[in-house]
Amino acid sequence: MGRVYEALKRAAESNGGHKKKADGDNRRDPTTVDADGAAARASDQQHDQVAAHIAAHNAAMADALVQSSSILRAPQTAQVSASTEHTEQIVGSALPGGQASRDAGATLGAAGSTRTGEFVTVDISPARVEPHLVAITQPKSPHAERFRSLRTRVLHAGERKKVQAIVITSASVMEGKTLTALNLSWLLAQTDGVRALLIDGDLRHPCAAEYLGIDAPVGLSEVLGEEATLEDSIICLEPAGLHLLPGGARRDDVAELLSGPKFTAVLAQARRMFDFIIIDAPPLGLFTDATVLINRADSALIVARSGKTRYAALERVLEPLPRERILGVVLNASHEDVPEEGYYYQRRDARQSEALESRRDADNAAADESRPVPFEEEVR
Predict the structure, then answer these.
(1) Helix ranges (DSSP H) in 134-260
(2) How far apart are CA 304 and CA 302, in angstroms?
(3) Residue 282: which of 309, 303, 259 has the closest Cα?
(4) Contact partners, residue 106, CB within 8 Å, separation at least 6
(5) 286 contacts 316 by C-beta, under 8 angstroms
(6) Bridge partners for 277 per DSSP
(7) How many CB atoms lie within 10 A of CB 200?
(8) CA distance 83 to 67
(9) What's the DSSP call for residue 176?
(10) In 10 A of CB 277, how many CB atoms?
(11) In this structure, what is the dihedral angle of CA atoms 95, 101, 107, 111, given to the nearest 10 degrees?
(12) Which of 69, 207, 214, 309 is the most exposed place for a label (fewest CB within 10 A)?
C-alpha cells in the first residue's frame, strides 16, 4: 500500500509541475500566448491523459492487492469464504460426483463403526408364550435351573474357547431344539453385562416368534433377500433384554443363501454387536442347512430327546461334523425327578409358613398329651 501511495503522489506532483511551468511561461511572455495557446492546451491534455492512465493503473493494482490479501478483505466476505471454501474443492473419486459433502468427514470417520442403537422393543407376556419356555413361565422351577446350568457351561466355554456363535440343532424333528435355544438365550440375556442375540435360522419352518407369542413378519429371510436391514429386523424382548432376529418368510433356497456371502456379512455384523449369538438351525438328519451353519459358527449343541432319539441316528449325524466344534449334547425330556423339598429356590415366606405349621402341630400334640382324661373313661 505504501508503494501505491507514493506512485499516486508522484503522478499528481508531475501533473501539477507541468501546469505551473506553462502558466509561468505565459505570464513571462504575453505576446506569445496567442501563438502558443493551442500547443499549450494540447500539452495539458496529453499530461492529463497520462496522469489519468497512471491513476487508473495504480487503482487496479491497489484493488488486486486488497483482493489477494485475507487480512485486508471485508469481515463478511472472509467469513463466508471460510465456511464454504472446503466444500468447493474436488477431493477425489471416493465421494459421489467428486464433490465433498459437509458431512463427509463424519461419514468417513464412522465407516468402521457399527450402529448398535435402539431396536424395536416388545414386551413378552408369560401367559402368551409356549408353556415349555420355563425360563419365562416358571423361572424358579427346577427345570429352569437345568437351563441355568447349561448357561453356565456356555459362559465357561465362551471364556475358555472364545465361543461366541453357537448353533443349536438336533438329529430329527420334535426333539426340542427350538425350546432349548429360546430358554438358553433368554437366560443368557439376563446375565449381567451380556448382550445376546437369537437368530431363527430354520428358514424352512421359522417358529421362534410363534413360540414367543409375537408377530414378526420381517426377519433373516428378508435380510438375506436385501429387502430389509439387520438393524430394522432385530427385536428387543423385554424384560430379559434378549434380542431376536426372526426367521421371516419361509424359503426353499436356504442352503444356497446360508452358503453365500450375504449370510457371512450378516453374521460378521452380528458378532460386532453382541456377545453371544444363538442360532436355531434345522435338524441335521433332514437338510444340509445345519451343517452349513455349524461351519460358519464357533460351536454347536446337539439336542437329543429321551426315549425318542436313536443312538445310531445321533452317531450318523455327528460323524461328518468337526469334533472341535461340538460343544456337547443336551438330553431333553428326561424323566429324572428333582426333589422339590430340597430345592433351594423355595421362597422365604413359604419356608416360614411350613416352620410355623410344624410348630403348631407340635404344640397341639403336647397339649393333647397333657389334657386330663374324662371321668367316664377313667372309671372304665
Answers:
(1) 134-137, 142-161, 177-189, 208-211, 220-224, 230-233, 254-259
(2) 7
(3) 303
(4) none
(5) no
(6) 165, 197
(7) 28
(8) 18
(9) S
(10) 25
(11) 10
(12) 69
Does residue 295 contact residue 320 with C-beta atoms inside 8 Å?
no
Burial class (CB in 10 A: 0-12, 13-18, 19+), 196: buried
pLDDT in tens, the chain (380 residues): 555 456 555 655 555 554 444 444 444 444 444 444 555 555 556 556 655 655 555 555 545 544 544 434 444 433 333 333 333 333 333 223 333 332 322 222 233 333 345 799 999 999 999 999 999 999 999 999 999 999 999 999 888 888 999 999 999 999 999 999 999 999 999 999 999 999 999 999 999 999 999 999 899 999 999 999 999 999 999 999 999 999 999 998 898 999 999 999 999 999 999 999 999 999 998 889 999 999 999 999 999 999 899 999 999 999 999 889 999 999 988 766 555 544 444 445 555 666 666 666 666 666 655 555 444 443 33
Question: In one letter, which amino acid is 24?
Answer: G
pTM above 0.85, yes or no: no
Residue located via cell numbers 446350568: 149
- Tell me the HSE value of 207 on the side-chain side, using a 13 A CA sphere: 14
Cα–Cα distance for residue pair 232/204, rounded to 1 Å: 22
